[in-house]
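User: Before I run my own analysis I want an independent prediction to cross-check against. Here's the chain; please return only the structure tokens and, at the end, one sentence I can use as a sanity check.
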Amino acid sequence: MQRGKIALLSITALFTVSIGGAQAFEINTNATVPGNAVTHGSDATPATKQGRPQKGQQQETTIGVVPAQEVNLMNSANPKMEEIDTVQENRKSLITVKYSEYPVSVPVSREEVNVISVPYAIEKVNTSKENIKEIGKAEKEFSITVLKDRETDIVVKTTEKTFLLTLVPTSRHATHVVIDDAGAATKKAEETEKEFPHVELMTTLIKKALRGDQIEGYVALPRSEILNSPDATFIFKREIMGVKYKVVFIDIINRTSGVIQVRENMPFIRNIVSRFAGHPYATTVTREFIQPRNAEAERKGEFVSTIVAVVSSQQQ
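Assistant: Structure tokens:
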């Protein structure tokens, strides 16, 4: 073949995946793929989602939105640098507390200094003096050494909220307690979800998720669920949780030797999202044509596409 010519390859295979014994989707790989595969039909359209838009075209994100009513309802004093071989993290000494509206009990060290961090500037820390050895306060945290044989009640008054804590002395090492105001995140998420009409909200959530922008009040959580089929691997890798809605990310990895075409309006996309997270309100895919996995496709990331979808946070 002469250099500069486009190879014509007609791909007509039909891929199917079964979930729980029922057919979940069909992928027709009749597709126009620049440099790889071209259909012979007059209705073939060039690919623009695989990261290489045609000359003169601007790549756009297509989002399919479903009306709300149609969806069923995160030992040296001064050691030299060369003397330090490794740094070991003691993750058990970090405790994160999701504080809502109720007092919480937290295990701390009875022997060593503990640090309590709060999300807002501290105005005052109240406690029974006979229950502590020492206390020091900074803007958003304070250090405390408790007595070995009794619990210590702490009242932390900040510029935004008052936190009530009971420190329980244990044999653990020095502890860093991080207080997270869960109520504040919930309020911000509710405000975000009420800010726009349904369709505009769905579009906004998808676009912010694609850009990696922070969604006010939403909390990112890792997920690790995998579904294999003969033709593709689906990986539910993370979600961003709000109050009414959450945004989910599901990778599609091509396991075939041909090109797979996916679009956000294909029924199997909704089926896969439903399988992992619930019925979607809105969906998009980051790559329309998924190349077979090889060295070049791995280098360019062209063997995987990601489904980004909005579902109800109450589902699954």
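Sanity check: Confidence is low (pLDDT under 50) at residues 1-53, 72-82.
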